[in-house]
Amino acid sequence: MDTDLHLDPSTALLVVDVQHDFADPHGGLYVPDGEAIVPGINALVAAARPAGSTVVATQDWHPPSTPHFATDGGVWPVHCVRDTWGAALHRDLSRDADLILRKGTGGEDGYSAFGVADPTTGATTPTGLAAYLSARGITRVVVVGLALDVCVKATALDAVAAGLDTTVRADLCRAVDLSPGDGDAAVAAMQEAGVSVRGLV
């Protein structure tokens, strides 16, 4: 594990979508090996606390019916339906967070922690995370979680666009690889945008 990571009060740790539907083999949209990142994330949360860093955990939190789902014309199997086991944070994940941010609550495509998109029109709406981090004096974010090639990538790209120094800990992420090579392509896209991708294996 990459342990050479500076944590301080101007840094936020963003723990993206480590939920049962993604991180448990019985989940509706299981990311292979997703559960394996939980102990490392917990260790990073534990290191962030005495350093004074902000910790934010995100959750997909969808209604039962949404154009985001394949059952309603989208591309994804039903997952993270609000108030279900699948939408809950993984049972072993640390709950020590300053903010738990739920996205996709109105049926939007909630890929990024910073904004959601209408699945039909593509119109985007901020989640309020950028303003929250700004109010806390955050200038740098470290992003971990699921999935590397979907929500982690979208969150990291939006963080850079918001002017934040952005690091992704790839060893504490896993890719869903809907198409083979999506994970590698995501890493390349993030690096091209200025994201520091650490812990590559």
Key descriptive features of the protein:
alpha/beta
What does this structure look like?
With 201 residues, the protein is of the alpha/beta class. It contains five helices and eight strands. The strands form two sheets. The chain has a six-stranded parallel sheet, with helices on both faces. The termini are close together. The model has no long low-confidence stretch (mean pLDDT 95).
Give a brief description.
The chain has 201 residues and is an alpha/beta fold.
- What's the helical proportion of residues? 10-25%
Give Rg in angstroms. Answer: 15 Å
Strand content: 15-25%
- Give the averaged pLDDT, no decimals: 95
The SSE order reads EHHEEEEHEHEHE
End-to-end C-alpha gap: 10 Å
Shape: globular
- Strand order in the largest sheet: 3-2-1-6-7-8
Largest sheet: 6 strands, parallel
Supply the helix-strand structural class: alpha/beta
Individual helix count? 5
List segments where confidence is low: pLDDT < 50 over at least 5 consecutive residues: none
- Counting DSSP E segments of at least 2 residues, the number of strands comes to 8
